[in-house]
Amino acid sequence: MDFGFTDEQKILRQTFKKFCEKELTREYVAWMDENCDFIPDELYKKLADLGLFGMIIPEEYGGSGMTFTDYMIAMEELSTASVAAGICAGLAVSFGAKVIGGMGNEEQRRFHLPKMAAGETKYCLALTEPGGGTDIINAMKTTAVKKGDNYVLNGQKVFISGGNVADYMLVVALTDPKAAKRTKAMSVFVVDAKTPGITVNLIKKVCIHACGTTEIFFEDVVVPAENMLGVENNGWNKLVDVLNPERIGTAMLSLGIAKAAYQAAHEYSLERYAFGKPIGSFMVLQHYLADMLIEIENATNLIYKCCYLMENGLPYHMEAAMAKIVAGRASEIAAIKGMEILGGYGVCMEYDLQRHFRDYKQMVFSPISDEMAKNMIAQWTGLPKSY
Ligand SMILES: Cc1cc2nc3c(=O)[nH]c(=O)nc-3n(C[C@H](O)[C@H](O)[C@H](O)COP(=O)(O)OP(=O)(O)OC[C@H]3O[C@@H](n4cnc5c(N)ncnc54)[C@H](O)[C@@H]3O)c2cc1C
Question: What pLDDT, in 10s, does the model give residues 205-249?
Fold first, then answer.
């Protein structure tokens, strides 16, 4: 067994660490949280120049063809500095590069991937609808009806991250609403966000302000048939396939929150005095910090194990679902115990802990709720499907 990273990976981590120290200072991250509904274009461009968006895109499409582990190392540093920046980057890589790279034809890949790698285009994935996210297969109402060389989209999506800035929307819609199996009823389209008939509204939320969440309305939106990704009516099965790594990416975002909350609480525990000594000398607070580290270590190991399994062509769906839950729990424990350690200052906007406390909440139910992830883990062990 080898738990180590290669020398190149250590250098990669240092590069991203240094970038974050310079570009994502505490003050800047707090400013983004208060003032932005997506990371500023300037920062987006700098991340593109650093090569983040093209890391897992093959060289022939303008990327650098690195491994998923490499990408996760970069995301670990970025998400610890700012989970909002981590999600904004994840939209390009997990949704854009993975979905178009995995489902698109040669022409679609040649058109989109180089621009995405260069940070010139932004993407969102529009799957969830107001009728329900967990049971989206049955809740979906958005339709795409074939008319000549086009499809006409009608419907509504909700909770779509980055819909406010996306140049292209990856929209999942019913192309055969009467299909005997709902999994054979859907197709995926790349939709130019400027197409007439699209309305995007920001949803106010308590968490991760610098990556906006939106509702999107489609009213007689005409999409050229060649913008379909993959095969008609087989969009769901293929999408689930290419989105598998997203659970690992989501776990990494949670790990970032956990590490940031831990670091802030650890630092404070040495600075704050009570009864003549730093509060970090009280055993109960030491246990809080130890609890956080245990969860962080667990999540880290599971995430990188998923990377190992994936890169070696081994099944990783079970571990990816577990990683999503374990890292989410790490962020929850770190945020809640961190708030305890900060005492009254925990709830003050001037301190970062309140942001981690708000942000971790987003990770518990997205892109899949912990309850549903556990349903699936149990099902994969051979138990009857519970839903
Ligand atoms: C900030 C944010 C960003 C998001 N970004 C995106 C995005 O970019 N693109 C996108 O398409 N979607 C996005 N989502 C949607 C997200 O994937 C859904 O919120 C998620 O799938 C849950 O769906 P829901 O909110 O409708 O909850 P529901 O499906 O209504 O679930 C409500 C509760 O019921 C539980 N539940 C449901 N079924 C079962 C069952 N069988 N067993 C046990 N418990 C069950 C759930 O676990 C949950 O606790 C985002 C959501 C948020 C809030």
Answer: 999 999 999 999 999 999 999 999 999 999 999 998 888 888 999
Pocket of ligand 1 (CB under 6 A): 124-128, 132-134, 159-161, 205, 213, 362, 365-369, 371-372, 375, 387
CATH topology of domain 124-233: Butyryl-CoA Dehydrogenase, subunit A; domain 2 (2.40.110)
Phi-psi group of 47: left, alpha or beta (phi > 0 → left; psi -120 to 50 → alpha; rest → beta): alpha
Contact 221, 191 (CB under 8 A): yes
H or E stretch covering 18: helix 7-23
Alpha carbon distance, N-terminus to C-terminus of the chain? 38
3-state helix, strand, coil in the chain (%, to 5): 55, 15, 25
CATH topology of domain 7-121: Butyryl-Coa Dehydrogenase, subunit A; domain 1 (1.10.540)
pTM: 0.97
